[in-house]
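Listing 4. Sequential folding, example run.
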Amino acid sequence: MSDLNADTTRARSAAGETRGEDLSPLRGGAEAGRAPVVANRESMVWIPGGDFIMGSNKFYREERPARPASVGGFWIDPRPVTNADFAAFVRATGYLTTSERAPDPAAYPDADPLLLVPGSAVFTKPPGPVGLRDHQAWWAYVPGANWQHPEGPDSNIDDRADHPVVHVSFEDVSAYAAWAGKALPTEAEWEFAARGGLDDATYAWGEEFAPDGQAMANTWQGRFPFENLAEDGYEGTSPAGAFPANPFGLYDMIGNVWEWTATAYDLPRATADKPSCCQSKASVDHAVARVVKGGSHLCAPNYCLRYRPAARQSQSLDTATTHIGFRCVLRSSAPGH
């Protein structure tokens, strides 16, 4: 994942039909929080919290230094929020996602007017090898792309109800979390949960990427971005829970889709001199970026080996793409209390 074309990332839009019964489309997280559901922690996994080593000194510079961290106990969704989950939210609230809204041209004076239409950023596989420094060779702003039409207006999610919802911005996921009576995890909570108690392990399941030849997560096999061998059975997203759970019983913490966290992105001082190959630049204004975690089905060893608990990226708040989703947490009492 890399910074997208400025016009692409800024041309967040909307339009589309009003959803829900007798409800006007909601356009913000605060409004979407009205009449929230009562969070059901019985469907969640209790993470007792504790001390752990956060980050890594072994891979990308934005993960350094490995450092002691601590989190309190919390409940977390065992799977990322799916299309079916998000559809229930939309039906209940009439919410319109960022990718479905008409942007204010005055807010984006430098954007290409042709991109100031409803749409979102879509991964488009090039026909052959391209330079890995030119992300525009595989990312395109596609009018009409949104959570219900992931690849564009001619696509749909009819057979993807159990796949993670994508094309959701930070505002969208915050709105869902508020409605669900939950919250987004902090980066530390997310990483602690992803590690599954295997402190300082490279992957969420240990040190070996594919133990006994078994695919443990939905990642890219082949030469990114033009050759996807789909040896793990999936070329795009996969159903939530299609791969083994980590030791905490959590699915898809690694691969499939990146996941939003509530933590403002910051670049450690030791890494501020030079960005890595596919790392977004740190923002001087933390209001415009949050940390995303876990890697996605587009992560490949030849380009972006980020399907690990320690991996992290910066994502602007208004960005929605085909490979970013989320899950929620609930900070409540432990089981039995």
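-- end of first protein; second protein begins --
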Amino acid sequence: MRKINETKIGIVILSISVILLIVVLVVYFSVKGKRAGENEGVTAAPTTDYTTVATAPTTLSTTLPTTAPTTGAATTTGAATTGLPTTTSAFTTVPPVSAPATGSAPLTTGVPAFTTAAPASTGVYNILDDNNIQTLSEPTVINIREDLWFLALVNNQYAMPADYVVNTAPSIPGSDVPLEARVAQKYTEMYNAAKQDGIYLTPCSGYRSYERQKNNYQRKTQLYLNQGYSEAEAKAKAAMIIMPPGCSEHNLGLAMDIIATNDNFYTKPEYAWLVAHAADYGFILRYPKDKQAITKVEYEPWHWRYVGVDYARAINASGMCLEEYLAAAGLMPTPYGTPVGAVG
């Protein structure tokens, strides 16, 4: 009797084992078939990168306009002049010849344009790509000549003097966003003209103090430090978006961020109006998309810089950015304290 019971128990255990095996097999093949169905029609991504790599030219062959501006500065009335430095040495020509005696730029054909050793770019140039990180060097402090104050070049390479005084005024009546006083007059004119066309060029950020610029730059640098970049890399990447203190056109009160710093501002009617009319009031798009390799700053469709009416029209006609134009016109800055006509 005991032997019979043991046999029955063995048969039951064997039957259960067979059933479990069948269940496992059914589940396995079911899952395998499902995964095969999910991957049906999916082609593996190619391992070869077919993106065309274009090397930026080391020289620019843009033809300069043959007609030079008749005057250097836009006409203003009641412009504030007190507080400006007494030095009159600001710009000299490259190659070294005498600096222009008046505000008109000595534009001639065949003058070498601003050159840049831009890194090779893949597809559309993106200044914020990690391949474009270049350690910043100490900027050269420049002179700012009174009759060419509106052409002062500040960027990662050039900084304004620490003792330079900027007289400010509201960019438009009732606004708490200031600009350099003479620039504010022209911005008000532009604002009113746009308003007649149903366009409102609301001031967002104009003149900034050295301390405010310093704080903005440090915050952006810290952002990149938090992402794991070295201090040198973080400072360099931050400067592609926010200039170091003293190197920003906002510190001179010459630039306005209009409405807001939105990447899609170039799609707005306000941007279209500025492209068509801003030069008539002395303003240019300072950081164009196709000049990032030269300006070393990301594309900023909202950032418009005052250079005077004649120069704004000439720069637009040349197709150059400010760095290129000043180099071609022989108006690059000289180091602080360098006499007029000396080589910087």
